[in-house]
Amino acid sequence: GYEKGLGVTQDFNLACEFYQKAFEEEEKKDKTLKSLIELKEGGPVFYYQLGVYYEKKQSLEASDWYYKAIQQGSAHAFNALTQLAQKGMQEAQYQLAQYYESKQNIPEAINYYMQSAEKNNNALQALIRLSAHPEAAYSLGCYYELKDLNQSSHYYRLAASKKPEALTALMKFA
Q1: What is the C-alpha to C-alpha distance for residues 159 and 139, in angstroms, rounded to an integer?
Q2: Which of 121, 161, 120, 112 is nearest to 139 (CA)?
Q3: Average pLDDT per consecutive 10 residues, the chain (174 residues; last block may be shorter)
């Protein structure tokens, strides 16, 4: 009822709580998952609960479902995805970066892209796309410093006019 406002005021957070209790009390989680999948319309509660289900199974799919729920406004899913990112799940870090970029919070996007860039080429490409932003260029300079000195100095030069740390880093190449 709370998810769709049937007979009560629509309340996604309360719906999430009821679904969470159902998951915790349900002995046969596969039966609960099947019921969720049978829902005709996916919404933030639906996606969040799939994230919870897959997280309990320690599946990488959890972050995908949480991300879909975040895109539809689920604060519970945002918290869950943030926790996965903080635990080092690179897919969660990448998805949080995408979320922050979509909200124009470029410093946070860069932070999460950098966390996942080592093993996620898409994150690295996103940073390169954002390299007009001095913070992204500086981060790329740092990233490439031990890998490719030409790339590193290129990105430090891009950042140097607005980020003094980049100028200091460039002095290492002189």
Answers
A1: 9
A2: 112
A3: 69 74 63 56 79 86 92 93 93 94 94 90 91 93 92 94 90 81
Burial status of residue 120 (CB atoms within 10 A of its CB: 0-12, 13-18, 19 or more): middle
Task: Tell me the whole-structure pTM to 2 decimals.
Answer: 0.71
78: Cβ contacts below 8 Å, ≥ 6 apart:
66, 70, 99
Residue 4 has a pLDDT of 67
Residue 80 exposed, middle or buried by CB count within 10 Å (0-12, 13-18, 19+): buried
Q: CA–CA separation, 140 vs 58, rounded Å?
A: 31
Tokens of 48: 């969040």
CA distance 64 to 71: 11
Q: Is the distance from CB of 124 to CB of 103 less than 8 angstroms? A: no
Based on its alpha-carbon atoms, the radius of gyration of the chain, rounded to whole angstroms, reads: 20
Distance separating alpha carbons of residues 1 and 74, to the nearest angstrom = 17
Q: For residue 78, give the amino acid letter.
A: F
Give the amino acid at 155.
Y
